[in-house]
């Protein structure tokens, strides 16, 4: 019995020490996390200076950054409007369906890159499907392929 009570009292001290170490660690992480320290307007201003790739990378840095970036739909709008230059119909349709700017960007970003490559004539002189890089292919709807075909016929 005495051995058990002695072990329990020692483990109680260890638990207290571990809890204080965890609390110190959380306090230090919180002090280093500007998202939790700065007003939301300032945090938004900082994140709004990032390009798409940097914004996505920042969103996986930690939970609070992810939450701030993911839940700030207006951070994604300027990037969507850039993509809209190539995918106007797709962006407008998604907007009418009520998707958030972040979701619209997720749905159309890769498509816009592929569509831009096709419309700019990068693949105009392809002799066979084998000549197309596999990673550039992206599923697109019939209307998008129609736009690409029209551009090719005009060339």
Poorly predicted runs of 5 or more residues: 5-14
Q: What is the end-to-end distance?
A: 91 Å
Shape, principal axes of CA atoms: elongated
Portion in beta strands: under 5%
How much is the average pLDDT?
Answer: 79
**Approximately how much helix is present in the residues?**
55-70%
Gyration radius, rounded: 26 Å
Walk me through the topology.
Blueprint: H1 2-31, H2 34-37, H3 40-48, H4 52-59, H5 63-70, H6 77-84, H7 88-96, H8 101-119, H9 142-154
Helix pairs in contact: 6-7, 6-8, 7-8
What does this structure look like?
- By secondary structure, the protein is mainly alpha-helical.
- It has a domain at 10-74.
- The chain is 70% helix and 0% strand.
- Helix 6 (77-84) runs parallel beside helix 8 (101-119) and helix 7 packs antiparallel against helix 8.
- The termini are far apart.
At a glance:
Part of the SCF (SKP1-CUL1-F-box) E3 ubiquitin-protein ligase complex SCF(FBXO9) composed of CUL1, SKP1, RBX1 and FBXO9. Interacts with TTI1 and TELO2; when TTI1 and TELO2 are phosphorylated by CK2. One of its GO terms (biological process) is protein ubiquitination. By secondary structure, the chain is mainly alpha-helical.
